Amino acid sequence: MSRIVLVLLILLGVNRAAVADVETTDPQAFVAAFIHHIGEAESLRVQAQKDVAAAGDDKGAAIISSSAKLATALRGHANQLNSFQLPPPMGGAPQKFATLLQQKAELFETYVAVLEALAGTPRAGVIYEKLAGKSPDLRGMIENADETLMKATPLVFATLINTTPDAQGYVNRLTITKAQRETLIHELDTAFGDKLEAKSQNYIVAAAQVLKADLHRPFKCSDEP
User: d(Cα 12, Cα 24) in Å, to the nearest integer?
Assistant: First the structure.
């Protein structure tokens, strides 16, 4: 290998590492990742409803399959959010959301295990009445996790706020450009469409509504005078 090629490979590796560092410390990238998560979560929820409706008499298998997909997606999103290391004072925000998604994934995994046990061949020593009674509790806990995420969504927007006060002592500016803010709003519109205008929605869509409203707040962007 020539010295020139070796140097280029080394530089390429350094550049990739630098890009990775920028991406995991960039609040805009974190907000975009959060939007991707809630968008996919809503998409999977809608698809699950369709799959169950089309399953006929085998709805149990459809519910198990869709719940397993949600658990897998939640694990992946949690790992992605956990990789962010944002600057203070919001440095721990991604990890809080990652923990919440991990807990929700565990609830779905437990839900799948309960449904599989109920659908399988009866085994001695298993109290099936107790398992059946646990299903509504798990669904309620999953909904509570979604509600917690919705209520915590203002923290996502807060990661974009420039905490340096202006000459009058007010914090009124974002760390992102006007174009970047418009991109985030566009990503929300693309993921949720007309649901963002509905008054009554599930907690995931409500989280998207909260974030979009925050992005429209009268904060100046980094490239605005």
Answer: 18
Which of 111, 103, 21, 27 lies closest to 66, judged by CA? 111
Q: What distance in Å separates the CA atoms of residue 7 and residue 13, rounded to the nearest whole number? A: 10
Q: How far apart are CA 91 and CA 197, in angstroms?
A: 32
Q: List, for the chain, all residue ranges whose pLDDT scores fall below the cut of 50.
A: 1-22, 122-129, 131-132
Least Cα distance to 51 among 68, 34, 36, 39 occurs for: 68
Q: Of 87, 114, 82, which Cα lies nearest the Cα of 100?
A: 82
Give the separation between CA 155 and CA 80, rounded to whole angstroms: 17
Interhelix angle 178-192/203-215, nearest 10 degrees: 160
Backbone torsion region of residue 173, taken as left when φ is above 0, otherwise alpha when ψ lies between -120 and 50, otherwise beta: beta
Write the CA distances from 73 to 3, 101, 104, 184, 220, integer angstroms.
44, 9, 11, 21, 35
Please name the amino acid found at residue 88. Answer: P
Are 138 and 114 in contact by the 8 Å Cβ rule? The answer is yes
CA–CA distance, 98 with 75 (Å, rounded to integer)? 9
Q: Give CA separation, 82 vs 74, 76, 90, in Å.
A: 12, 10, 13
Q: Where are the domains of the chain?
A: 27-79+89-215
pLDDT tens sequence across 53-91: 898 878 888 888 999 999 999 999 999 999 999 998 999
pTM score, whole prediction? 0.83
